[in-house]
Amino acid sequence: MFREKASPPDNETKRIPSLWILTWPIFIEMFLQFLLGTADTLMVSRISDDAVAVVGISTQLFNAMTILFMTVAGGAGVLIAQKLGAQRPEEARTIAVMAAKISVGIGLAMSALLFFGAEPIARLMQLEEKLIPLAVTYISIVGGGMVLTAAMAILSTAVRNTGNTRSPMYIAIGMNVIHLVLNYGFIFGELGLPAWGLTGVAISTLVSRLLGTLVLAYVFLHAFHRRIGWADLRLFDRPLFREVLKIGWPMGVNMASWVFSQLLLFSFVAMLGAAELAARTYMNTLESFCFILGNSLAMAAQIRVAHLYGAGMRKEANRSAFSALWIGLALVMINALLLFVLGDRILPLFTADAAIIAIGVSLLGLNLALQPFKMLNMAMNGALTAIGDTRYMMTIGLFSIWLVATGLGYYLSIPLGLGIHGIYIAMISDELIRGVLMLRRWKLLQQPAPLAQPRNESLMIQG
Question: What PANTHER family does the database record attribute to this sequence (predicted)?
Answer without folding.
Answer: MULTIDRUG AND TOXIN EFFLUX PROTEIN MATE FAMILY (PTHR42925), NA+ DRIVEN MULTIDRUG EFFLUX PUMP (PTHR42925:SF2)
